[in-house]
Amino acid sequence: MSRYRGPRFKKIRRLGALPGLTNKSPKAGSDLRNQPRSGKKSGYSIRLEEKQKLRFHYGLTERQLLNYVRIARKVKGPTGPVLLQLLEMRLDNILFRLGMASTIPAARQLVNHRHILVNGRIVDIPSYRCKPRDIITPKDEQKSRTLIQNSLNSSPHEEVPKHLTLQPFQYKGLVKYKGLVNQIIDRKWVSLEIDETIVIEYYSRQTKP
């Protein structure tokens, strides 16, 4: 299944707020979610919706998310929080959480178009896994700096989580910004409202050894 490229409001009306997918809100007076159908949702339906929330927020294909679940199962520690750590430490998500991009799709475009440096080197892989002490900056070109600055100026972002730091600095008489990765993210700093244990349950049959 390919990455979703359809109407974004359609997804947030069904699944709730997905800040990584869009920073816009439905028109005033409309419900964020569609009215639920009569009758109680099945356990499978609930697990499917939580899985879809995770997939659309982080902008993943079905295969990518399944692979992340498989990796998380192999890592020491609770599978659910480990899965969220893997997704949150992706470069495209780090740019979004720093405010350098308005959404995760916008961050992915920055990376794909080679506007982003990690530790002074161009990284053009959105899924690049950031590590503590990584330094993230725009490429030293006017277009790259402008794209980052426009996002920082115009996008209403939440407070930068404590595992990251956004710092202004002077370079050749210009103000630039760099993002610092301080540590692996703690579960309490994940902004998406999600029950990751239900997502693990959804994939349980597909990820058995």
Automatic annotation (TrEMBL):
User: What family is this?
Assistant: Belongs to the universal ribosomal protein uS4 family.
Q: List the record's Gene Ontology CC terms alphabetically.
A: chloroplast; small ribosomal subunit
Q: Among the record's GO biological process terms, what is one? A: translation
- Record domain Small ribosomal subunit protein uS4 N-terminal: where: 3-88
Q: Which UniProt keywords apply?
A: Chloroplast, Plastid, Ribonucleoprotein, Ribosomal protein, RNA-binding, rRNA-binding
Q: Which domain of life is it from?
A: Eukaryota
Where is the stretch described as Disordered? 1-44
NCBIfam families the UniProt entry points to: PRK05327.1, rpsD_bact
Task: State the organism of origin.
Answer: Adenocalymma marginatum
Enumerate the GO terms in the molecular function aspect. Answer: rRNA binding; structural constituent of ribosome
Give the signal sequence positions.
Answer: none
The RNA-binding S4 domain, residue ranges: 89-153
Give start-end positions of Basic residues composition bias.
1-14
Tell me the PANTHER family matching this sequence: 30S 40S RIBOSOMAL PROTEIN, SMALL RIBOSOMAL SUBUNIT PROTEIN US4M
Protein's recorded name: Small ribosomal subunit protein uS4c
